[in-house]
Each structure stands twice: as C-alpha cells, then as structure tokens.
C-alpha cells in the first residue's frame, strides 16, 4: 500500500515538471529547425532569382539617378516585378551595389517608377543591415534579419551576383519577406508539435488524477481489513 502511495505521489511530483521541461525543449528545437529550413528555402529562392540577372547588362548601370531612363534599368525593374506574383510571401525584390567608400545603394527594385515605396536608382541605403555588407564581403548567399528599415520589418534572402571574369561581387539581390509572414510560417510549422505536447500533458494529468482516486478509494478498505477485530 505504501509503495502505491509513494508511486502516485512521485508521479504527481515529478512527471508533470519533466514533461513540461521536455515539451519546452522539444518546441524550442522544432522552432530552430523550422527557422533553419525556412532560411534555406529563402536563400534558394534568392539564388535562383540572382541567376536570372544578366551580369553584362547590370554592368552598364552607373548606380546613379541617371539610370532611371536607361532601357536596361527599366527592363530589370520589370524582371524583378515579375518575381513577386509567383511568391505570395515576397514583399520586395531589389539589387544593391556598393561604392568604393563602402556605401550601399540601390541599382533597381521591383516597384514602378514614382511609386511611394520605390527605392530610386542610386538611392543610398541609409539603414542597411550589416548582414548585406557581410554578403558583399564574403560573396556567399545568406539570410538577413529580422531587421527594420524605412520600409518595414523583414527577413531577407540575399544572393551575390558575381562577375565571372574577376570574381568580384558586382551586386547583391535581396528578396524580402515581412517579419509578420515569417513568424506566421514558423508558427504553422511548430503548431503540430505544440499540439502533441499539450495532448501528452492532458493525458498525464488524467492518468495521475485516476491514480490518486484509486489510492484514496483503496485506503479506507485496507484500514477496515487490517483493523477488524473479532467479537
């Protein structure tokens, strides 16, 4: 009887905390895995779009406001604009360059000329995240963010456009997903794990309650049995 009592008490004392800790650890692990998968997918999308850019045409741009009437600039703008309809999560697509003094500027983006959200040709990216500078330095595709700039809150896939003759990074393509959409995608991926943990907790609580009731029911019966005295 004491063993059963000890067993029920131990379950109620240790099982729930252990399951809760394990559940939190599992959710954290799943979230990291989901975030890693989403970043890999965003990098792949940015890399694919970058391969569509004609490096020779890009090199004809000056990275100044004078490019705004260039046929190549307008062609690239239309090309980038065609990317978003195929990706509902994509918010902006753009090409950035870097000056000799280290300033990051916009070659071209996907917004129509004169649009309130447009980054005009040659515009300096004043609040550029350090992650974009890193890609200019390393020449490696990566994700940047979450970050905040004058257009909003984003996570961006970024891929370098490299001059095949010199190996230099000529431009970096950015493909933005809003931070809100990013969080929504993460939450959808971990929802199943959270549901499993909650179901396990409910099942454990139900089992413990049942065990406690059984022990309490048996206690009076055992007392009567061992305390019975003959007349």
Which features characterize this protein?
elongated; 231 residues; Beta-Lactamase; five-stranded antiparallel β-sheet; single chain; 5 strands; alpha+beta; 5 helices
Outline the structure in words.
The chain has a domain at 50-179: PAS domain (Beta-Lactamase, 2-Layer Sandwich), CATH 3.30.450.20. The chain has 5 helices and 5 strands. It has helices at 2-51, 55-58, 71-81, 130-138, 179-227, and strands at residues 90-98, 104-109, 142-149, 152-162, 169-178. A 5-stranded antiparallel beta sheet has the order 2-1-5-4-3. α1 (2-51) runs antiparallel to α5 (179-227). The longest helix has 50 residues, at 2-51.
Overview in brief:
Helices cover 53% and strands 19% of the residues. With 231 residues, it is an alpha+beta fold.
